[in-house]
């Protein structure tokens, strides 16, 4: 086998990656259009697996949280549009749900919307020797995410420096944490 061929064994053709990104972009546009028509926010679209194990996940939200009925309506509409436009050849599973209690913060407006909530951040590179931060989200100012750390210190992190951010669910307000059962 030639050296150039050996180095490409198992590599996926780059044009397929481009097609997949274009396909996800088109699916995202459709999902966003349907979500907005239903009074919902499209949080995220993810396509995982392949073949029979392919799963298209659509995460939705709205103030006060989404209902099973919201998911059902979007799922029905998405299924029809995807089938008519044949955007996903072959079989796949469509999952429509809430982003969960640990909702990801994916765009700058999320940092304003969830100001006053507890968050955890993972940074692309260390800030004062740490990549993982936790604290109370204070919002955004001048392209910086304002965070009050658990020790009370206020810091600002450049939005572009954040790799991942999630809300942290707080037990309280009448909810009790259930202890795991032991046998």
Topology diagram in text:
Layout: H1 3-6, H2 14-37, E1 41-48, E2 55-61, H3 68-85, E3 93-97, H4 108-113, E4 118-127, E5 130-141, E6 144-149, E7 154-158, E8 162-167
Parallel strand pairs: 2-3
Antiparallel strand pairs: 1-2, 4-5, 4-8, 5-6, 6-7
Helix pairs in contact: 2-3
Separation of the first and last Cα atoms: 58 Å
- What is the CATH architecture term of the largest domain? 2-Layer Sandwich
> Which CATH class of the largest domain?
Alpha Beta
Characterize the overall form. Answer: elongated
Number of E-state strands: 8
Q: What's the tally of helices?
A: 4
Q: Helix and strand succession?
A: HHEEHEHEEEEE
Low-confidence stretches: 1-16
Count of domain modules: 2
Quote the CATH topology of the largest domain. GMP Synthetase, Chain A, domain 3
Query: What is the makeup of the main sheet?
Result: 5 strands, antiparallel
Helix-strand category? alpha+beta
Work out the radius of gyration: 21 Å
Mean pLDDT over the residues: 85
User: Which sequence of strands runs across the widest sheet?
Assistant: 7-6-5-4-8
Strand content: 25-35%
**CATH homologous superfamily caption of the largest domain:** RimP-like superfamily, N-terminal
């Amino acid at each position: 086998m030639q050296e150039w061929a050996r180095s490409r064994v198992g590599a996926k053709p780059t044009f397929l990656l481009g097609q997949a990104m274009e396909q996800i972009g088109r699916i995202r546009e459709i999902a966003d259009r349907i979500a907005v028509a239903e009074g919902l926010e499209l949080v995220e679209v993810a396509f995982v697996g392949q073949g029979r194990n392919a799963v298209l996940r659509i995460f939705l939200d709205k103030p006060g949280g989404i209902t099973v009925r919201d998911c059902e309506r979007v799922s029905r509409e998405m299924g029809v549009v995807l089938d008519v436009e044949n955007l996903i050849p072959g079989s796949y599973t469509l999952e429509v749900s809430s982003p969960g209690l640990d909702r990801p913060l994916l765009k700058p407006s999320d940092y304003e919307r969830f100001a006053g909530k507890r968050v955890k951040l993972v940074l692309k590179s260390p800030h004062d020797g740490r990549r993982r931060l936790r604290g109370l989200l204070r919002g955004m100012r001048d392209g910086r995410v304002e965070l009050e750390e658990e020790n009370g210190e206020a810091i600002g992190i450049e939005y572009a420096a954040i790799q991942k951010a999630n809300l942290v669910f707080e037990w309280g307000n009448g909810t009790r944490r259930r202890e795991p059962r032991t046998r």
